[in-house]
Design a protein that fits this description.
The chain has ten helices and six strands, in the order E-H-E-H-E-H-E-H-E-H-E-H-H-H-H-H. It has 220 residues and is an alpha/beta fold.
Length: 220
């Protein structure tokens, strides 16, 4: 039997918690194991119910989502955190990723993306909704004449995150610059780079650039 993904929901609106619970319980290997209506109880609740994934709002009473993230970092909790927020400002996105959030979605797209987000983050990858990903990417690529802004790859062997990273490597961004711009650690960038090179069966950056040119990720 496949192990269930244990999910805890933290939001100050019971209606939202109830709606997400009803949706997530339709997925066979998902189990909603608890919920919190304020930030002060989240860590203790997650520890008690042994949640794998925490879906967390930023605007929480008593202790906001940023403070909850800091508390999880301090206690080195293994639970992976997805932010579900009404806000999509880059400053906030950058802040929560710095404190260890593994995914970010806005509430207006929650119904469409939350299931995929949980599965992706549980598997150890980051997840951003399309609107959030586009906003992040546009902040540092809109002035780069070599970037092909109409990226489309038929039957891609790389994930969307890997496509972003191979594009940035091809545009001569360093690992540190990529980590800062995608709000991930340099170790995560390096892990992605190794996975990309393995998938593309190449041993150096030249192979990555060739892939980017062939698939029109960048303009020559």
């Amino acid at each position: 039997m496949t192990n269930k993904i244990r999910i805890h929901l933290a939001d100050d609106h019971q209606v939202l918690i109830d709606g997400l619970t009803n949706l997530l319980q339709t997925v066979p290997n998902f189990e909603v194991v608890g919920s919190s209506l304020n930030g002060t109880t989240v860590l203790q609740n997650v520890i008690e119910n042994k949640a794998d994934i925490l879906v967390l709002d930023i605007s929480m009473p008593q202790k906001d989502g940023i403070e909850v993230l800091q508390e999880f970092n301090k206690n080195e909790s293994p639970c992976k955190i997805i932010i579900l927020s009404s806000y999509d400002e880059l400053k906030i996105i950058k802040e929560v990723m710095k404190f260890g959030a593994k995914g970010y979605l806005t509430k207006k797209c929650a119904g469409k993306n939350i299931i995929e987000a949980i599965k992706t983050v549980y598997q150890g990858q980051e997840y951003f909704s399309d609107a959030v990903r586009e906003k992040i990417f546009n902040t540092f690529t809109h002035n780069n004449p070599k970037l092909n802004k109409n990226i489309y790859i038929e039957n891609p062997i790389l994930s969307p995150r890997e496509i972003e990273i191979v594009t940035l490597i091809s545009l001569e961004y360093t690992g540190k610059e990529i980590s800062e711009k995608l709000f991930i650690s340099t170790n995560t960038v390096e892990t992605h780079r190794k996975n990309i090179m393995r998938k593309l069966q190449t041993k150096n950056t030249i192979g990555l650039v060739k892939y980017a040119l062939k698939n029109h990720l960048i303009n020559p």
